[in-house]
Each structure stands twice: as structure tokens, then as C-alpha cells.
Specification:
CATH architecture of the largest domain in chain A: Alpha-Beta Horseshoe
Helix content of chain B: 25-40%
Number of helices of chain A: 16
Strand content of chain B: 25-35%
Pfam family, one (chain A): HemN_C
Strand order of the largest sheet of chain B: 12-11-17-8-9-16-13-14
Radius of gyration of chain B: 27 Å
InterPro entries (chain A): Aldolase_TIM, Coproporphyrinogen-III_oxidase, Elp3/MiaA/NifB-like_rSAM, HemN_C, HemW-like, rSAM, rSAM_sf
Oligomer: heterodimer
Organism (chain A): Macaca mulatta
GO biological process, one term (chain A): porphyrin-containing compound biosynthetic process
Distance between the termini of chain B: 54 Å
Mean pLDDT of chain B: 69
Number of helices of chain B: 19
Strand order of the largest sheet of chain A: 1-2-3-4-5-7-6
GO molecular function, one term (chain A): coproporphyrinogen oxidase activity
Chain lengths: 398, 694
């Protein structure tokens, strides 16, 4: 996690800071240290993917990116074909810098394009123009062919369905094989939230956003994209390995201020998966890394049920859903059918065609995927109930 | 200038401050900003008259309202009104009163500071010994009350009188000493009347001045009428800035009909915008009291307060009672003390009472032995005896306030007397459902309600249950404020969190109702211009039209300038219909309402709209309908969800996302299903709470 940005975007509530001057050398050293410490702690042998997120990691120097990758490769096995993604903001002169990142080991780019409408970009507080966005996209595709993703937002205040679909169509002319459609969510504490609260801006209309989403995903399907997750679309198999790991409840280490991780600290002899959060403020985080080798602020052991809940809630975000094999990795005794097969409410969801439970596993239908959060309100309590009925009361400490 | 004298009393400050002998004595908490209270406006809805026993109402409608609105400028002067309840235009009786009380202008009590040290003899430190009340013959006793519109300074004047007579120490902290409940101090209203006996030396004579504080709201008008029946006179306090307001008028007539001497006191003359002359003229015009009889004071600064005491002695007659007759005592208030049982506040009309006497309640015919008698100072101060004309308290082993009902007469065993007129049991006017927010708190709430009703026999309690809200109670209150105060006391004193449903009024048969008033099915009864910029309007309203939000609407329409008062005016017939609310065709029991036929459509529409706002979207469409019989009169639709899924869910979002989902799933368990529609509990509450008839 690279915690710095050039400017605060009006919608963003991430852990980011607008620096007066970054001591990049110190930051780099700490990222390297923490990566090494946490890799050792996890006992991980092989790293499948690395994702440089932020903040705006494309503001970091390519040397820093290279140093971190170097450290990973030294501590664990980092295969040559591992996915190494960098989040990048469009700029007016993207060329040489993107090439340097490529040389540093980055092999996939995720471009925060957000919109092709300059008014909307200003509303979002972005520093780039639509023109910058397309130029950056083209340059990225030249450098990383087939490995470029773009983000497009929908459901902005005052945004209308027609013009937005126009943007999507235009983007389809320029984009590579991966696209993410994100509905704007107004987060407390952001400038946009305040403006909507004060009535300066109209509140986004959820009805219109739903319309954009439904029409958008249909357009992308037509264009040969597979909606492999709620907000993610890929063609030619260009799925993001890294993000796929999140939805499959794989292990991941969070490195940098405020980064989240979920892994079993096997290097420390533990067999319990933990949710970990690193210290938020860059200065404090750096101090801690220098003193202890890492800046982990919070460690929460995840219980077996909690893990299953995550398997369920995250797995259903993907188009394949939860296969029986996948579920069995986490819960060998209780099958998906044991849990959900007999429940009346689940049955209703199956009958309504929102959910599918068959020989492959449990997954959302095309219609169901759009209302997954409503489905989970039925599925999660059912999982809890089945869990409590099946397992004898948990042994203390176990 | 009076501050010089303060040290004489200050040394006695400590013991008084400890105070809490009973349950609800939070004395020195101070009065917080009223703006904190959500239902602020209704707080001010405090009149004092409803039904005065023995005085038949002339109006035969449902509810008379008094509105008083001062004008902002000439152009809108027409909208300004003030208005009175009943008995308006009894010029003859008014004149009779005027002669009775016209004793000429009160002499200024310039010697007051010098006379203070003599008062000190009776201040609290001396009360360790039991007082001999026989030292106060009837002719040296004055029983009086202070009445005023909300915020005109009643309690502040009481504080000054208490200080002046050395009853309480003169400190900076004497703020509404008689308002003991936290709710009273916060809202600046008096709920539970408090009484104080003041000992005052004037021209060589020792006087016993009994200040009988009264609750200031129509909800408690029965209590007020009982308190007043123990008085011979009242101080009618009017704000020098605001002038006569709705309750001023109501209070005046209450006192006037009880044939009490009325001493007008114009308060707050220290304020920048004070216009005492204008108020004098108003008083002369409206009440027919010569303007030179008004006493102009500033209770806050203590200016001219001595002359109020002087006027009390000179203008209020002593009680007409007989010490020689057998005991006849009026119960005008009662409180419950968990250690001593019921403490009944009594006024003796005849005879003597002392410890060990056997007394009988005329209402219950139960016999008790008196354990303790005394005066209120304002804390209980035991005395040997109480004599006719005096006011004090009595403890006689009564275990429940119902045994000491307000208005009841006490007499000596085997010496029965004619009970004092006017007694009646409290009759609730407003009903509301009360439910614990969480059903697991049912038992706590139950015990809190039981404890609180120990002190307030006028609340009726019936167990009730609602499909949406679970087990609870249906409570009957004397009025809206009474209900809110009860609720607030539950929250403040018992830390109980409750859901209160929309209050309803009793429908015996049926009820028949500027724009606001017309929309409220009102009938104009009277209109009187008090002066060039204030008018008083009198209307007949169905109680159900004003019970919820009339006052809020009135206040906002008049930018806060109008004041309002109401009294009960009996039942009338009206065309009412039962209206059902349906969710996808299934009736919602909680929302079945009785409405006036003409308003069914607008109310039905409003309820549907409200429900639409508070129903979460679901995976299918929800039809919300209002129906009379099989006829649908209003409909709203909650559309099905087309998208409900968090857009971004990556490493950092997962914990948050899971938490949110689990909280929602937990909430879903608490939803009530009506047919296939899931309804959150608070959806009903929102609809019930804010249902308006606009």
C-alpha cells in the first residue's frame, strides 16, 4: 500500500495522505523490511501475485517498486509469470514512466480512468482529463498488451443512463481485455458526501445506477467479456489473479500503512488464520517497522465459522460461485447441500432463479449477482444455524 | 443591593444541598437548554384549566383552544390572536371580584432589608426543634399560589420569596428550588406541585405564608384546581415583554371562578424590551383589574419583590376556617417515599391534627394512624400539630398514592364531616402504547413503570401486546404533556428506553373540526382583540386534532408567537371510519386507525407515503395500500431491488463488509413478516410516531 496521493479525490475514503515531501528512501526501506518480516512470519513459499495499490502507487519511484519485488523474490519464490499489478492514474505524459515500472517488474496495469467526461472527472476531484485517460490507456496497452485494466465509475450525482452508456461504448473502442465497473458509494467523511448532504449536489439515484449497471453488464457481455465478479469483466482469460485470490479466500499479506492481510502465521507456528491491519499513519507505521520489523497494529484470529462466512460471501461474488471442491477445502464435514439444501427460504431463492445449487456448487444467477447482498441476508444466518446444529459446542481454546 | 446581606444565610447552605430523601430530588441540576428536547414546542403547551368542579362549562363542544399571537407588524396583524377558554364575558362576576380585591395600591415595602434578620429566626437551622404551629392564629395565615404562563417567571419568583423569608439560603444557586424533578428543571415547567411555608415578620406580627405551587399545565388542571381550593389568593405573574398569553387568561379565570383574590405581578421589568405599561393596560382591559394594582418586579434581580409579600398580607384574606370544629383536611397532593410511604400534602379547613390521631379517608373509608405531621419548608419539617387554615404534610402509613387521592377529605375517626366538594378520581384523556425497545428489557421497564405510577395515581396501566412491538402496555394519561413527562421520567430516572406509540383519545361515540384551524375541523367560538396587536380566538376542536402536532404546527405558522391552551369540552358525534393499511394485500394490525371520513384519503395517503419511506426494498415489489372496507383509497409502491451488492470488495474491504452483512442479517431476524413482506419494527414506529393529519 502506497499511502500518498497528489490530491484528494472527492469520493475516496481510503487511507491516503497528501504529503509535503515523501522521504522515499525511508519509505522504500520500510516496505522492504515489512515485506520480508511478514513473508517469514507467514511461512509462505511461493508468491503468485503482487499488487501495488494505494493511494497512488504510480507516484512512487520505479526503484521502490523494484526494491519491494526484489525483497519478495529473495524471501520467497516469485515465479517469473507471477502477476504484478500497479495501480496508475492517467497523466498527460505517461510514456517513459510506465516503461520504467515495466522494467522494475510490473507486468499488469490497473488504470483509474473513472470517467471519460471532463465535468464528471472534475466532480470526482481527479487531476486528469478524458484525453489524458485515453492517452495513458493507449500507452499502457502498448507496453503491457493484454494486461491492462481500466476502472469506470457509475451512479454519479446527476449522471444519466444514456450518456454513461455512451462513455462505456467509447471505452470499448479503446480498452484492453479487463474492465471494472464500480458504482459510486458515498462514503462518510468525503467531500462528495458533504456536498450531497448540504444539497449542493443531488444524491445519486440508486434506480439509475441499477439501470446503468444492468445495461452496462449486458453491453460487456455482448462485447465478449465474462463478468467473473460483481464489478469485474475480462475477455481472453485476462482475469486478475490477485483479486481472484481475495474472493477465493486465499492468503494475502498486507504491506504498507493501513494495509490489510489475511494469513496463517505458520512461520510463528500458528495454524489459525488471522485478519491483520497495519498501522494507518505513515510516520507511525515507519517507526514501528524500524523497531519491530513490521507495523501490524491489529491481529484478529478468524474462527472456522467466520472463515466459512467469508468463503460464502466472497465466493458468491464470482461467476463460478463456490464449487463443492472449494467449499470442502474449508469445511470437510458439512457440505453445501447439508447447509442450504433443506432451508425453505433458500429454496425460494432457488425457485426465483436468483441462486443455483447443483452438482457444481452454489452460485448466483445472472440476476442474483446484482442483488447478492440481499441473498446473503438469507444465506449467512442459515450457515450460522447449520454450523451450530452440526458442531458440538466448541471446545474452549479450540 | 440585597447581595450585601447574603452571608447571614450562607453558613447554613450545606445540609440543604444533600437533599434527596425521596426518589426524585435532583435539586441543583440546573435547567438545560430546552432546545435539546425534540418535542420542544409541546412543552410550552401549558395551560391550567380544564374542568373546575362545581363550575359547569358553558361550551358544549369538544375542546376549547386558546390562541394568543402578538403581531409582528401591522400588515399581518389580522393573523394574531390570543384566546381564552371559557367563561369569557362574565362581566358581572368579574366586577364583583374587582371590588373584592381592590384594596388600593400596595405600600412599598421599603423597610424590607431591615426586617430580614427577624425572618432568620425561623430559618432552617432553628427547625431542629419541633415547631409549635399554634403560634400562628388564622388571621396571620395567608394561603396563596403563583400562576403564570410558561416561562413568565413563576418559579423564579417563588425562589425569591423563599429567600426573602429565609426559608432557603440566599445563594447564586437558587434556581427553581421548588421544581425538584429533573424533567421540571429541563423543561422549565412544574409537574409536581411543591408547597412551602414561609414565615414572615411584618409590622410586629408573625405571618405564616403558605405558598402552594401548582403544576402549570392543563393536563394537571385537576391538581391545580385542588391546589387552588386550598388558597385564598393567587399571584398572577405576567411577563413584561410578552404580555398576556393564553395561559395567563386561563389561569386568571381558574382563580377568578374559585373566587380568589388575584394580585397581578408584572415580572421581568429589567429586560430591555420590557413594556410594563402596555401589560398594565392589557391587564386592565382583559381582567378588569385597575392598572395601579399591578406590582412591577424583576424576580431575577429581586427588584420590588418585597412589595409582593406585602400585597399577599394586605390583599389576600386569611382562610375562613374554624379551629374548634372537628378535623376536615383536604389532600391536595401526594408523593411516595420508599421509606416512609405516602406523604400527603394537606390543607386544614377545620380542626387540628397531631401525631397519634386516628384519621379516616372520606373516599376509601380506610382508617389510619398519623405518624407524623409537619410543614413544608420546602422539605418536610415535623411539627407538633397542624391547625385549621394551615398547610402541611401528613404521614399515616398509607402504602400507595391511590390511598391518598388528590381532592380527598380526611377527618378524625368517629367524627365524620361533610367531605370537601370537588373530589373526583383522575380520568385519563390521552392513551398511548408503551413498549420496551428490546423485549428483553420488558421486566425492567415493568418495574420502572410500577415505581413511577406509585407516585402518580393518575396514570392508568393495562397490559397490551402488539405483533410488531411485542409485549407492552396501554397507558392512560391526563394529557399530552403528562405523557411526555412520564416518558421522560422513565428515561431519566429509570434509564428505560421505550417506544411510545401515537397518542389517541377516547372515542365514546364519535368526534366531528387561518387554514390550520379550518383543516383541524375547528369551529370558531369567539374572537377578542386584547390590544392593537394581539387577538384572542376561541375555537372548538376535536381533541384528536390537537393531540399530536397542532401546537407544533401553530408555533411554526406564527413563527413562535402564538400561544395555545385547551380544555375538555365533552363528546360530540362525528362520522368516523375504520381504515386498514395493507402490505401486498395483508392487513397490518398495528396501523388500523379510526379517522374522520373526510380525512381518510389524506391520512391514508400520508401513512402510505411514510411507510414507503421506512420499508426497506426487497427482492420483489411491495404494494402499500390504505383501504376502507374493500375500497382502496391510497397506494404507494416500493419497487423491488434491481441492484444490491457492494461494488468494491477487495482485501481491505472484507472485514467491514462482513460486519455490515452480519449486522443486517441480525436486523433481518428482528423483522416482522406480514405475508411475504419483511417489515422493520421501526417502520411502524416511524409511521405511528409521526403520523400527522395534515
Amino acid at each position: 500500500h502506497w499511502p500518498y496521493c497528489e490530491k484528494r479525490c472527492s469520493y475516496c475514503n481510503f487511507n491516503k495522505y497528501i504529503p509535503r515531501g515523501v522521504e522515499e528512501a525511508a519509505m522504500q526501506k520500510c516496505l522492504v523490511t515489512e515485506a520480508q518480516t511478514l513473508l517469514r512470519l507467514s511461512g509462505v513459499q511461493r508468491v503468485e501475485s503482487v499488487f501495488f495499490g494505494g493511494g497512488t502507487p504510480s507516484l512512487a519511484s520505479p526503484h521502490t517498486v523494484a526494491a519491494v519485488l526484489e525483497a519478495v523474490a529473495q524471501t520467497a519464490h516469485l515465479p517469473a509469470d507471477s502477476e504484478v499489478t500497479l495501480e496508475a492514474n492517467p497523466t498527460s505524459t505517461p510514456g517513459s514512466r510506465l516503461a520504467e515500472f515495466g522494467a522494475a517488474g510490473v507486468n499488469r496495469l490497473s488504470i483509474g480512468l473513472q470517467s471519460l467526461d471532463n465535468t464528471e472527472l472534475r466532480l470526482l476531484g481527479r487531476t486528469h482529463s478524458a484525453c489524458d485517460a485515453l492517452r495513458t490507456l493507449a500507452e499502457a496497452r502498448r507496453l503491457f498488451p493484454g494486461r491492462v485494466s481500466v476502472d469506470l465509475m457509475l451512479g454519479l450525482p446527476a449522471q444519466q443512463v444514456g450518456p454513461w452508456l455512451g462513455q462505456l461504448q467509447e471505452l470499448l473502442h479503446h480498452c484492453d481485455d479487463h474492465l471494472s465497473l464500480y458504482q459510486l458509494s458515498l462514503e462518510r467523511g468525503t467531500a462528495l458526501f458533504a456536498q450531497v448532504q448540504q444539497g449542493v449536489l443531488p444524491a445519486p439515484d440508486p434506480e439509475l445506477a441499477a439501470e446503468m449497471y444492468q445495461r452496462g453488464r449486458a453491453v460487456l457481455r455482448e462485447a465478449g467479456f465474462r463478468q467473473y465478479e460483481v464489478s469485474n469483466f475480462a475477455r481472453n482469460g485476462a482475469l486478475s489473479t490477485h483479486n481472484w485470490t481475495y474472493w477465493q479466500c486465499g492468503q494475502y499479506l498486507g504491506i504498507g500503512p493501513g494495509a490489510h492481510g489475511r494469513f496463517m502465521p505458520q512461520g510463528a507456528g500458528s495454524h489459525t488464520r488471522e485478519a491483520r491491519i497495519q498501522t494507518l499513519e505513515p510516520d507511525n507505521w515507519m517507526k514501528e517497522v524500524m523497531m519491530f520489523g513490521h507495523g501490524t497494529r491489529k491481529r484478529v484470529p478468524l474462527g472456522r465459522l467466520e472463515l466459512l462466512e467469508e468463503v460464502l460471501a466472497l465466493g458468491l461474488r464470482t461467476d463460478v460461485g463456490i464449487t463443492h471442491q472449494h467449499w470442502q477445502q474449508f469445511e470437510p464435514q458439512l457440505t453445501l447441500c447439508d447447509v442450504f439444501g433443506a432451508n425453505k427460504e433458500v429454496q425460494e431463492l432457488l425457485e426465483q432463479g436468483l441462486l443455483q445449487l447443483d452438482h457444481r456448487g452454489l452460485r448466483c444467477s445472472w440476476e442474483g449477482l446484482a442483488v447478492l447482498d440481499s441473498l446473503l441476508l438469507t444465506l449467512l444466518p442459515q450457515l450460522q444455524e447449520a454450523w451450530q446444529q452440526r458442531t458440538p459446542s466448541p471446545v474452549p481454546g479450540g | 443591593m440585597s447581595r450585601r446581606r447574603a452571608p447571614c444565610w450562607r453558613q447554613q447552605a450545606a445540609p440543604r444541598r444533600a437533599a434527596p430523601s425521596g426518589c426524585f430530588r435532583s435539586w441543583y441540576l440546573g435547567r438545560t437548554t430546552r432546545g435539546l428536547l425534540s418535542s420542544l414546542h409541546r412543552v410550552c403547551l401549558s395551560p391550567v384549566h380544564r374542568t373546575l368542579p362545581g363550575v359547569p362549562l358553558k361550551t358544549n363542544g369538544l375542546c376549547c383552544c386558546c390562541l394568543s399571537v402578538p403581531s409582528l407588524d401591522a400588515s399581518i396583524a389580522r393573523v394574531m390572536w390570543t384566546l381564552v377558554g371559557r367563561g369569557w364575558g362574565c362581566a358581572r362576576t368579574l366586577a364583583r371580584w374587582a371590588t373584592g380585591a381592590a384594596l388600593g395600591p400596595a405600600p412599598t415595602f421599603g423597610a424590607a432589608p431591615e426586617s430580614w434578620p427577624t425572618c432568620r429566626v425561623y430559618s432552617s437551622a432553628e427547625f431542629k426543634e419541633k415547631l409549635d404551629m399554634s403560634r400562628f392564629p388564622v388571621e396571620n395565615i395567608r394561603n396563596f399560589s403563583i400562576v403564570a404562563h410558561v416561562d413568565h417567571g413563576k418559579s423564579t419568583l417563588a425562589d425569591r420569596l423563599l429567600e426573602l423569608t429565609g426559608t432557603i439560603d440566599k445563594t447564586e444557586n437558587n434556581k427553581q428550588v421548588l421544581d425538584k424533578l429533573q424533567v421540571e428543571r429541563e423543561r422549565g415547567i412544574t409537574v409536581k406541585a411543591q408547597t412551602a411555608s414561609l414565615f414572615y415578620n411584618c409590622e410586629g406580627k408573625q405571618y405564616l405564608l403558605n405558598l402552594i405551587d401548582t403544576p402549570g399545565h392543563v393536563d394537571f388542571s385537576y391538581e391545580v384546581s385542588r391546589s387552588l381550593s386550598a388558597c385564598q389568593g393567587v399571584l398572577l405573574v405576567v411577563d413584561a415583554n410578552e404580555g398576556i398569553q393564553a395561559q395567563t387568561v386561563a389561569n386568571f379565570f381558574l382563580a377568578f371562578e374559585a373566587q380568589l383574590s388575584v394580585i397581578p405581578v408584572i415580572n421581568k421589568i429589567d429586560l430591555k424590551n420590557a413594556d410594563p405599561e402596555r401589560v398594565e393596560n392589557q391587564i386592565e382591559k382583559v381582567f378588569d383589574i385597575p392598572s395601579d394594582e399591578c406590582i412591577k418586579i424583576s424576580a431575577k434581580l429581586g427588584t420590588n419583590v418585597e412589595s409582593v409579600l406585602q400585597a399577599v398580607i394586605e390583599r389576600i384574606p386569611p382562610p375562613k376556617v374554624h379551629r374548634k370544629n372537628p378535623l376536615r383536611a383536604l389532600v391536595f397532593d401526594s408523593t411516595f417515599d420508599q421509606y416512609r410511604g405516602v406523604i400527603a400534602n394537606v390543607a386544614l379547613f377545620d380542626g387540628v391534627v397531631s401525631k397519634g390521631d386516628k384519621i379516616v379517608s372520606a373516599h376509601t373509608q380506610k382508617t389510619y394512624e398519623v405518624n407524623e405531621v409537619g410543614v413544608l419548608n420546602p422539605n418536610e419539617q415535623p411539627t407538633h400539630k397542624l391547625y385549621a387554615g394551615q398547610v402541611g404534610y401528613l404521614i399515616a402509613g398509607m402504602k400507595n398514592v391511590i390511598e391518598a387521592q388528590i381532592g380527598d377529605t380526611l377527618y378524625l375517626h368517629k367524627q365524620p364531616v361533610e367531605p370537601l366538594p370537588g373530589f373526583k378520581s383522575a380520568k385519563p384523556m390521552v392513551f398511548a402504547g408503551m413498549y420496551p425497545v428490546d423485549q428483553s428489557e420488558y421486566n425492567n421497564l415493568k418495574s420502572a413503570i410500577e415505581k413511577l405510577t406509585l407516585n402518580d395515581s393518575s396514570v392508568t396501566v393495562h397490559r397490551d401486546s402488539s405483533l410488531a412491538l411485542g409485549a407492552g402496555w396501554r397507558l392512560g394519561f391526563l394529557g399530552l404533556l403528562h405523557m411526555e413527562v412520564f416518558n421522560q421520567r422513565l428515561e431519566q430516572e429509570y434509564n428505560a428506553s421505550v417506544i411510545l406509540t401515537t397518542p389517541t383519545v377516547p372515542y365514546k361515540a364519535v368526534l366531528s373540526s387561518s387554514k390550520l384551524i379550518k383543516a383541524r375541523r375547528a369551529v370558531q367560538k369567539n374572537m377578542i382583540f386584547i390590544d392593537q396587536n394581539r387577538v384572542m380566538l376561541k375555537y372548538l376542536f376535536p381533541l384528536n386534532e390537537i393531540v399530536v402536532d397542532f401546537y407544533d404546527s401553530l408555533k411554526s405558522l406564527s413563527s413562535g408567537y402564538a400561544s395555545f391552551d385547551y380544555e375538555d369540552a365533552g363528546y360530540q358525534t362525528a362520522e368516523l371510519v375504520k381504515m386498514d393499511i395493507l402490505l401486498n394485500g395483508n392487513t397490518v394490525e398495528e396501523l388500523v386507525t379510526v379517522v374522520h371520513k373526510d380525512k381518510a384519503h389524506s391520512i391514508g395517503k400520508a401513512i402510505c407515503e411514510r411507510l414507503k419511506d421506512s420499508l426497506p426494498r426487497q427482492l420483489f415489489e411491495i404494494a402499500i395500500q390504505a383501504a376502507i372496507g374493500s375500497k382502496i383509497i391510497a397506494r404507494e409502491t416500493v419497487k423491488a431491488y434491481r441492484k444490491n451488492v457492494l461494488a468494491k470488495c477487495y482485501g481491505g474491504d472484507i472485514t467491514r463488509k462482513m460486519k455490515l452483512l452480519k449486522r443486517q442479517a441480525e436486523g433481518k431476524k428482528k423483522l416482522r413478516k406480514i405475508g411475504n413482506v419483511e417489515v422493520p419494527k421501526d417502520a411502524f414506529i416511524k409511521v405511528l410516531k409521526t403520523r400527522s393529519s395534515k
